[in-house]
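Fill in residues.
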């Protein structure tokens, strides 16, 4: 059977050269080598057509399932950063041998996506997965083929934004889907207009779960950072931050904001120090106060301050009992769901369309000629009145993708033609490693399609206005891609690994990516960046006052980061009572090209002297080096590369003694060693106890429980007990005893322990 590889329509006649369904040529066209050729068969079942699209990590094709006889969409794992197509045009392989492990790990995540989404088969709003498998050195996911358009496309066809009623229904439908997804423990993590798809039947589908992971896994392991600026909450910029349903609620609120205002929210990373996000009502958008409050709360930078469930967000939108309505009339642009003559014509072959268009032009030309002649004769009879034809609207184009020079030329042309004074400011830039984009505009402060001759449109922006002469003036800010420099603010919060990824630096290049084995920060924390203009310290990068400064990016830029050996326990043991010298652990480092992969350094080292050990402990019972406290329970996991807030082990620094010392001496020694500590010392005894000798020391914690040590950071009360020195009885004088048989008086003051007892066989006189 022959197929049209554009729409997968079966072609029964071998004579046809154009598809009767979509009007496209049936001859196979040449496509880029990164894609599989149309007609490729997978698993002896799925026939691939032309690509539907591609991204950084994969290709998507239209296809045909020969078993179920239906169209499908097939997603192929194809990470362009480190993979390529082999010479046979089919197999996928890593571009370098050392990247193979990274490719294999990415493939596992890709297939995990399929498992995650396949488990949601009973949720109507989730794209259905029918199959997934490994083949050709990579992986494939087979899913239902969707006819329709994304919310992003709908917005583009609808003036870039929608009214509150429309937006509310879309968001409530999305929240209804998320509510079911979150109950399964899955977080989508990539909600944006291009991932909300609307079928021709009006069914809203949540697609592209490539960033999704089980919520429990997010708390247990570092995950790849996958995000979209403006829609991604702050926790997605960190590999260590915990994510949950509130992560999706932030993105859903950002989607709501974008659909209402026509603008993406300010990226979360730019709102940390100063939040300048403007509520929609301040822009003149009509929105109920409760709904706006719910949106802005979910857009809070800090996760703990957001609403925590889809139900709570729906309640804020008065949608507790909301039931999704799946029909095309309310959500799709009119021309997309119309079923009249126009839609029928649009489905005709190209040749038929051309014939109809030609006939229509002839008919219109005849009608217009007649009208023009009649109109001209009527004008001649008019009483001296003249008719003027008003110029059409002058709409600002979309400058994105243009070079700065092209955009400036266009502005100069507008100014010359209309006597305006508009300035294009292209001084602002954003970093992009792709040199093809260098110098092209990526965003503009005044939205495209605005009518520059309309006062109402000009009043909607603060950048442009009409002066007293009715002329347009102002400044349009355009951000330009740059592969040569970036701002401090663009790398704020990034560790060395993420920065190297952003700048495209090979992490095996020791001249540009250098780890130093010294303390000063957690593993991968930046120590400094060296450029041709000098060194930039980590503190300078963090200083908010430097956010607008630029960094030169060339082959001389070098990232220096902290890479001390760290310790890792999958399950801690119990160490109290042991000596610190006997506790050793294998040292670890991270793989240069995989931030999640640990490797042992091949040696076991003592924990003594590391940040895991605190030796500010004293005891009257335990020997020096004895471990007296363990802050993490036996069996817990510990990874010191993620930072340790408190020492793991507390160790006796010195064993104190009180034998032969007075109460005041022992008290002074304790107070000298605990200056600044929360320790109180008291002496108990009879009158003059401070000068009496100590017979015991008791240590109590804040719960009045007796303990055998005290340390900095906790509250203790120490009681010193003393008693008078017993006086020795005088020797009898009536019967002198020979010197050789006299018993010596015990030398108490000298601390001599050789004192006779009743059991030693000697008897005192």
């Amino acid at each position: 059977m022959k197929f049209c590889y554009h729409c997968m329509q079966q072609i029964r006649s071998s004579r046809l050269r154009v598809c009767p369904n979509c009007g496209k040529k049936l001859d196979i066209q040449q496509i880029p080598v990164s894609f599989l050729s149309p007609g490729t068969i997978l698993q002896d079942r799925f026939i691939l057509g032309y690509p539907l699209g591609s991204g950084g990590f994969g290709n998507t094709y239209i296809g045909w399932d020969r078993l179920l006889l239906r169209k499908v969409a097939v997603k192929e794992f194809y990470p362009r950063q480190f993979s390529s197509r082999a010479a046979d045009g089919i197999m996928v392989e890593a571009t370098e041998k050392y990247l193979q492990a990274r490719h294999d790990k990415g493939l596992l995540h890709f297939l995990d996506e399929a498992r995650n989404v396949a488990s949601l088969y009973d949720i109507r709003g989730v794209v259905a997965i029918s199959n997934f498998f490994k083949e050709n050195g990579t992986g494939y996911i087979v899913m239902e083929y969707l006819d329709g358009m994304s919310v992003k496309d709908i917005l583009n066809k609808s003036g870039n934004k929608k009214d509150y009623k429309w937006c509310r229904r879309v968001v409530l439908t999305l929240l209804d889907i998320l509510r079911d997804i979150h109950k399964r423990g899955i977080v989508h993590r990539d909600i944006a207009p291009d991932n909300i798809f609307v079928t021709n039947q009006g069914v809203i589908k949540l697609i592209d779960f490539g960033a999704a992971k089980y919520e429990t896994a997010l708390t247990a392991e570092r995950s790849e950072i996958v995000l979209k600026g403006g829609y991604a909450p702050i926790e997605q910029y960190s590999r260590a931050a915990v994510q949950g349903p509130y992560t999706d609620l932030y993105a859903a609120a950002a989607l709501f904001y974008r659909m209402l205002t026509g603008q993406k929210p300010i990226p979360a990373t730019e709102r940390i120090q100063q939040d300048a996000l403007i509520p929609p009502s301040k822009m003149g958008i009509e929105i109920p106060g409760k709904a706006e409050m719910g949106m802005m709360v979910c857009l809070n930078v800090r996760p703990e301050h957001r609403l925590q469930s889809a139900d709570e967000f729906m309640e804020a939108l008065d949608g507790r009992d909301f039931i999704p309505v799946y029909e095309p009339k309310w959500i799709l642009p009119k021309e997309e769901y119309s079923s009249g003559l126009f839609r029928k014509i649009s489905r005709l072959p190209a040749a038929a369309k051309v014939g109809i268009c030609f006939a229509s032009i002839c008919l219109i030309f005849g009608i217009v000629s007649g009208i023009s002649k009649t109109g001209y004769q009527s004008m001649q009879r008019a009483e001296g009145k003249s008719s003027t034809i008003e110029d059409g609207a002058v709409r600002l184009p979309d400058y994105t993708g243009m070079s700065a020079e092209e955009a400036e030329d266009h502005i100069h042309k507008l100014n010359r033609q209309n006597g305006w004074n508009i300035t294009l400011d292209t001084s602002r830039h954003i970093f992009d490693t792709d040199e093809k984009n260098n110098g092209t505009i990526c965003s503009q402060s005044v939205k495209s399609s605005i009518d520059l001759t309309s006062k109402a449109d000009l009043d909607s922006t603060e950048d442009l206005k009409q002066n007293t002469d009715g002329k347009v003036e102002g400044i349009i800010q355009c951000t330009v891609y740059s592969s040569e420099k970036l701002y401090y603010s663009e790398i704020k919060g990034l560790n060395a690994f993420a920065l190297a990824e952003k700048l495209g630096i090979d992490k095996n290049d020791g001249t540009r990516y250098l780890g130093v084995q010294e303390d000063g920060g957690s593993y991968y924390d930046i120590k400094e960046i060296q450029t041709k203009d000098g060194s930039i310290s980590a503190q300078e990068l963090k200083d908010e006052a430097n956010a607008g400064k630029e960094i030169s990016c060339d082959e001389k830029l070098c990232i220096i980061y902290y890479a001390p050996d760290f310790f890792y326990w999958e399950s801690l043991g119990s160490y109290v009572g042991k000596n610190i010298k006997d506790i050793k652990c294998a040292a670890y480092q991270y793989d240069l090209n995989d931030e999640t992969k640990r490797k042992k350094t091949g040696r076991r080292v003592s924990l003594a002297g590391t940040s895991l050990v605190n030796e500010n402990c004293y005891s009257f019972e335990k020997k020096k080096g004895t471990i007296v406290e363990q802050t993490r329970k036996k069996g817990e996991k510990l990874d010191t590369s993620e930072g340790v807030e408190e020492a793991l082990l507390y160790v006796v620094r010195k064993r104190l003694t009180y034998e032969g010392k007075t109460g005041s001496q022992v008290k002074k020694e304790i107070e000298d060693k605990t200056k600044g500590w929360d320790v109180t010392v008291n002496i108990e005894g009879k009158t003059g106890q401070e000068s009496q000798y100590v017979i015991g020391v008791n240590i109590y914690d804040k719960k009045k429980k007796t303990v055998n040590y005290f340390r900095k950071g906790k509250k203790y009360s120490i009681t010193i007990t003393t008693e008078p020195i017993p006086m020795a009885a005088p020797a009898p004088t009536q019967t002198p005893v020979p010197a050789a048989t006299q018993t010596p008086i015990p030398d108490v003051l000298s601390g001599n322990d050789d004192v006779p007892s009743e059991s030693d066989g000697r008897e005192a006189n």
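The chain has a mean pLDDT of 81.
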